[in-house]
Design goal:
- By secondary structure, this protein is of the alpha/beta class.
- The protein has a single domain, classed as Aldolase class I (TIM Barrel), CATH 3.20.20.
- It has a 7-stranded parallel sheet with strand order 6-5-4-3-2-1-9, with helices on both faces.
- Strand 10 and strand 11 form a beta hairpin.
- Helix 8 runs antiparallel to helix 9.
- It is globular.
- The chain starts with a helix and ends with a helix.
- The mean pLDDT is about 95.
């Protein structure tokens, strides 16, 4: 916690700090994935499953993450599909011993059993991707054939039924093709007491052209904002959701995030631009890597209107508008009061 407060202070003082003091580390455990979601894309527009980079075995992965732990209290394990790492259970077992303050694990939810018991023990937030409740449409999008979407929904329900468990988040990618079905996905999350998150489809680094000035897109985020203000459990502050709705330019703070490829390469200044500072296993001093990268690539750029992703926009808001967190705390208190009131009502004979 104290490291995170210090790191926040570093970014509050300087937009482009000399030292690398991340508020969050994101590690792409593997780029492998056997889904073919139509919106899947890195910053250059290439789907992750098409990227060719070797992943590390469990031992080297944990050595890498031990270096990461020196700089960051919070970790996201993602992909590709991280459950496709052949030693994912051993990785999660080791992650528990590293004692991060928070560990987020993102997954399509199809192969939950691959992680064994460790998703419940090592992970604090489990993020399921779910973009529709229409099984036929879901199967067409994921490219795995009939029954795949139904298995994912069943796995989510099964995971929710067992305690203890980490905080579960249902995350949807908003595309021009699924707008009409997203309120039902939100209701699925709300009715099960789990958080809902939504981000626009990016084509490369920019929002899909079919979402820009789209009344349906704007209406959906207005709906989320209304629900958020009523106390619903929706990811992001109010200003964050407003900027997602408006798709306007914002002041990105790329070094607030430490992003690493499966092989342990550190992206500078960010994953989306794709340039790399070096490998954290070969050089475990992150400040040395940052100094080399700044010398080679220059200071962090001021980009145009792009990258409306959860991390980029989320950290921009909390660093440039820290007062937004006051409203967030108030909404959290409201949500807890509503939850307690509902529990008392349900307990009344």
């Amino acid at each position: 916690m104290w490291r995170s407060l210090r790191n926040y202070g570093v970014h509050a003082i300087s937009r482009d700090p000399v030292q690398w003091r991340p508020l969050l580390a994101i590690y792409y455990l593997t780029y492998a994935c056997d889904f073919r979601c139509p919106y899947c894309s890195d910053g250059a527009g290439k789907p992750y499953h098409a990227l060719r980079e070797p992943f590390l075995d469990a031992g080297l992965t944990l050595e890498l993450l031990a270096h990461v732990r020196r700089y960051s209290d919070y970790l996201v394990l993602t992909g590709g599909e991280p459950l496709k790492h052949p030693q994912v259970a051993a990785v999660l077992e080791g992650v528990e011993r590293l004692r991060f303050d928070g560990v987020v694990f993102t997954t399509n939810g199809h192969d939950l059993d691959a992680a064994g018991p460790w998703l419940r023990r090592a992970v604090t937030h489990l993020v399921f991707s779910l973009d529709t409740l229409d099984s036929a449409r879901g199967d067409a999008w994921n490219g795995r054939g009939p029954g795949t979407h139904a298995r994912i929904v069943a796995n989510i329900e099964r995971f929710l039924a067992v305690s203890p468990r980490p905080k579960v988040i249902l995350s949807s990618v908003v595309t021009p093709d699924n707008l009409e079905g997203l309120p039902a996905v939100y209701e699925f999350a709300r009715s099960r007491g789990i958080r809902f998150a939504a981000c626009p489809q990016l084509v490369g680094v920019k929002a899909h052209p079919g979402l820009v000035d789209n009344p349906g897109y704007r209406c959906f985020f207005d709906f989320l904002l209304k629900e958020k203000r009523r106390g619903a459990d929706i990811e992001g502050t109010v200003p964050y959701l407003e900027r997602m709705r408006d798709l306007k330019k914002f002041d990105c703070r790329p070094s607030a995030v430490l992003a690493l490829s499966p092989a342990g390469d550190v992206f500078y200044p960010c994953l989306e631009l794709g340039t790399k500072a070096g490998n954290l296993l070969a050089e475990p001093d992150l400040d040395v890597l940052r100094a080399r990268a700044r010398e080679r690539f220059g200071p962090e750029p001021q980009c145009d209107n792009r990258c409306h992703s959860a991390c980029a926009l989320g950290f921009s808001v909390i660093l440039n508008q820290p007062w937004a967190m006051i409203e967030e705390v108030a909404l959290l208190a409201r949500r807890r009061l509503l939850s307690r009131a509902a529990s008392r009502t349900n307990e009344t004979p």
